Amino acid sequence: MYLVRKVTRAKWSGGEGLADGEIPADGVTADLRTQRNSLSFWRCPTDAHGELDDLALAIAAGRDFLDKLEFVWLDDDELTDDGLALNDTPGRTPVTELSELHVDVTQLDYLRLGTLARSIHAAIEDNRYRRLTRRSVKNLIADAIEQDRIDTDALSPKLREQVEG
Amino acid sequence: MTTTTQPDTASLTNGATVGHDLDADRESLATALWTSFESEPIEDGMEHPAETIIVDAYRSGGSQRLLAWLKSLSTDASQPSFAASVLRCMGRIDDLGDVPWRVGVLRESLAIDNVEIRDAAVQAAELWADVEVVDVLRSHSEPEPWIRQYILDVADDLTS
């Protein structure tokens, strides 16, 4: 099983004065902003493109407007072996069938957040990363609407207009 | 925004003689944007308060002056995270400037030796969706493989 989370790759791409392999603080502070010491992820059974697309759909359909999407996927066994706690919680997405795939990584402290940062950095280095263009995201959402997988009333008005327009 | 120093607003002067009020206006805009990014990083697909700051300034008059300032801010290599955030916000405003101005912003940003700025420039181009930027994208020699792929994908999307 994998855990999927959106990232901002440019923030993880080193920086002035950082050596290879060092984890940029910009990536941590931009992408790992916790709430109640937790971070939101989505479970994905495999790393097959079709399954990752579903999670991309779950994330993208919950946004304000149509935009590119970047994400990484992490091995959940590695995270739990490193002492990270997972807690299944319903995800906020208009794709209700995917809502149950949402999971929070909880009880994060300074050290466990560092563990997570290392895992995300390693995922990017190992190419467990994808970027979908705005057009690709639009196609994902439009297909899901056509297949009646999305509650369109739950889409933001702007996103709905951009996808259907 | 994760850097801790504010932008050097004095460096935003475009070589023109500007009065104190214009300097103050420009500094005020830069500070407002900076504060906005400090309090809330930009997320893909999610609206950000800085968009309103730019739109309000643009529509309150002096649009040419504002466009010059935005171009300076978004190509300021000395503040790459700030410049990239400005670029990403600019891309979200459909009617910002005209096509030649947007092409100019893209061209200048892509020439900067900073991954975050170049990536943000392509993101802005993707959102503006001007077919006119395709030649600039395709003629750019991008050293970073993942941005290079993104550029190819965006150029394909804009022409298909």
Provide structural commentary.
The complex is a heterodimer of chains A (165) and B (160). Chain A has 165 residues and is of the alpha+beta class. In chain A, 38% of the residues lie in helices and 19% in strands. Chain A contains six helices and six strands. Chain A has helices at residues 25-31, 49-60, 76-81, 110-125, 134-146, 157-164, and strands at 2-6, 39-44, 69-75, 85-88, 102-106, 129-132. Chain A has a six-stranded antiparallel beta sheet with strand order 4-5-2-1-3-6, with helices on both faces. In chain A, helix 2 (49-60) crosses helix 5. Chain A is globular, with a radius of gyration of 16 Å. Chain A starts with a strand and ends with a helix. Chain B is mainly alpha-helical. Chain B contains eight helices and no strands. Chain B starts with 19 loop residues before the first helix and ends with a helix. The model of chain B is unreliable at 1-5 and 8-18 (pLDDT under 50). The A-B interface holds A 6, 8-11, 13-14, 25-26, 29-30, 33, 60, 63-70, 129, 131, 133-136, 159 and B 2-3, 41, 43-47, 81, 84, 92, 115-116, 119-120, 123, 126-127, 144, 146, 149-150, 153-154, 157.
